[in-house]
Amino acid sequence: MLDGTEDEEKFLAAGIAGLQQNSFYMHRALDSNNLRDALKYSAQMLSELRTSKLSPHKYYELYMRAFDQLRKLEMFFEEETRRGCSIIDLYELVQHAGNILPRLYLLCTVGSVYIKSKEAPAKDVLKDLVEMCRGIQHPVRGLFLRSYLSQVSRDKLPDIGSEYEGDADTVSDAVEFVLQNFTEMNKLWVRMQHQGPAREKEKREKERSELRDLVGKNLHVLSQIEGVDLDMYKDIVLPRVLEQVVNCKDELAQFYLMDCIIQVFPDEYHLQTLDVLLGACPQLQPSVDIKTVLSQLMERLSHYAASSAEVLPEFLQVEAFAKLSNAIGRVIEAQPDMPTLGVVTLYSSLLTFTLHVHPDRLDYADQVLGACVRKLSGKGKIEDSKATKQVVALLSAPLEKYNDIMTALKLSNYPRVLEYLDVPTIRVMATVIIQSIMKNGTRISTSDKVEALFELIKGLIKDSDGTSNDKLDEDDFKEEQNSVARLIQMFYNDDPEEMLKIIETVRKHILAGGPKRLPFTVPPLVFCSLKLVRQLQGQEENPFGDDASTTPKKIFQLLNQIIETLSGIPVPELALQLYLQCAEAANDCELEPVAYEFFTQAYILYEEEISDSRAQITCIHLIIGTLQRMHVFGVENRDTLTHKATGYSAKLLKKPDQCRAVYACSHLFWVEDHDNMKDGERVLLCLKRALRIANAAQQMANAARGSTGSVMLFIEILNKYLYFFEKGNPQITVASIQSLIELIMNEMQSDSTTSDPAAEAFLASTMRYVQFQKQKGGAVGEKYEPIKYEPIKA
């Protein structure tokens, strides 16, 4: 291969050298106005283009050098005609060149001057030139010769408004000239494919690709002719071009020329000639990438429709959607071996076109999806990754256009297309749907819509066909389930009956999702239900005893069942938190038995399921905090629950944790704004018990490590004393506070106590608060005045 490249470089160098040498003599003849020598050396110069030893790329380099010299020769011919030389004689004189290729280049050059002189109609000269060029049938040489003819004639066509416009129907002559040149060039271009050994097929295809613009420029010239109106395009130009495209039966030529037609001619022409253009598509070779051709056509028409609302009636008038849809069907039928990627790409482009041109016609969009389903039927799951991406694009298009999942839910064929995706892609598509809902803040307001939506996103809410999530990345799984949780929060209806139906629909689907998903999906469902409870809060029972009515009690029964499903996972901490949330909601609804039942369930979980010490600490503080806010319980029930809570507190593993939980329990016996829930003695008992535990912790530390450790617990208890003292608990006296302060001071000054800067800062801050209260004066100042504090001297 390297030797061939080196030889080609040598042939090119020799050609350029010969061309430069003869152009030198040609210029010398031009300078001396020696016409005969000028023609002689120009013919010899152009003979270098007769070579067959160069690739199209190298031949182009040689051609461009000759082209530059021909422009100078043309200027010389123009000067000769101004000096009195007959252009007709010159036109005949150049035809005496010995070789046909130089003769035709010279003839085209003189022909350009001949047309400019207007001594003969432009159409006659052009017709003569295009016919004469038939003399070169070598593909590469012929293509470059006709390209030169196209180049020198493009500004001399007898077009409307052109200085070369004749009296008769000259636009037809201009069109005929370009079409004829195009036809001959295409034949030469196609012929290249069939010359040479079969093993060099790929090389020839590459060379042909390099030359395609020479052929395509003719179509560009056609599109620039002012006289080519819609009627002429419809009756003459398009049929002739398509005839050549179809008849050439060459894959590369058909694809490129169809693309050229779509790109160079105006959009309104395409719209008015859809029948003709689309009719050619099934006639193309099966190997032609027709999906790209039609996709580009639909893309152009979509942009045309988006450019102005005034053109939309034209689309309706020509029934563009029906024609495109039928054409796609015919193309797929004509190519039974068309890969899935091609089928999906075509329908994806058609759907995009439909959404741009007919956004109000959901039935059209559904027809497209239905047609796609029919073509995919029997093929099973799509395995091609590119085809899969196209399906995702197809399904994403309605979401992006309408920004409303409700619209997509109206498309009956939408979920049927989803079925052809593999499991990972179904999950991706479900995530896209949820993101669309969240981005647009769409509220899903009926159980039917929730049912339809869950059918679309079932890839996230349950395992498909026995597959599991074991292979799925844990972080990806969590992200997916969190997105489902966010989605559940978007379900809402003001009508309690309908909202309850929505909750029951969600419950049915998430319970089918397996235990691994429940910790993510149960909490949002519980909070949706609690939101409905708040909505119904204070509502009286139906006086007629209608069991179908939605009441808080019925919802709480449902909530109990929902939370129970977490017991088999197990996630006891989560279940306990949800029970406490429900208990608080039942408290606000004045439903004491319901609230007590939820607390009972929470206590059972704490006793039987939660053994981790850290989890126990968190849960006991949650229990205390929730119980403190409960006001619905009678004395007996409250005593039972508070007794249990204080008992749990005292049984924690570590003494400091015991201490903190016990002094937190003191708040259970003193609740502001509820006089019947203020028991100063039991508050003091809790605080004294906390002090005993703190003291025991100090002794244990001393026994184990030889130092009593920090006094932080005592300072924390002091803050509780001050809190209840300020709130007016008569059992918390100045004497008890003063005694505790002195205890803390003694401990801090003890040699066995470990220095703790944090504790010292906390105590200083606490005492600054006492000082601040003293400075307030009045009753508050008098109350705090007896409390004395002597800072430790360094």
Automatic annotation (TrEMBL):
GO terms for biological process: intracellular protein transport; retrograde transport, endosome to Golgi. SUPFAM superfamilies: ARM repeat. InterPro entries: ARM-type_fold (IPR016024), Vps35 (IPR005378), Vps35_C (IPR042491). It is a peripheral membrane protein. It holds the Pfam family Vps35. It is found in: Cytoplasm; Endosome membrane; Golgi apparatus, trans-Golgi network membrane; Prevacuolar compartment membrane. One of its GO terms (cellular component) is retromer, cargo-selective complex. Keywords: Cytoplasm, Endosome, Golgi apparatus, Membrane, Protein transport, Transport. Signal peptide: none annotated. Plays a role in vesicular protein sorting. PANTHER family: VACUOLAR PROTEIN SORTING-ASSOCIATED PROTEIN 35, VACUOLAR SORTING PROTEIN 35. Belongs to the VPS35 family. This is Vacuolar protein sorting-associated protein 35. It comes from Arachis hypogaea.
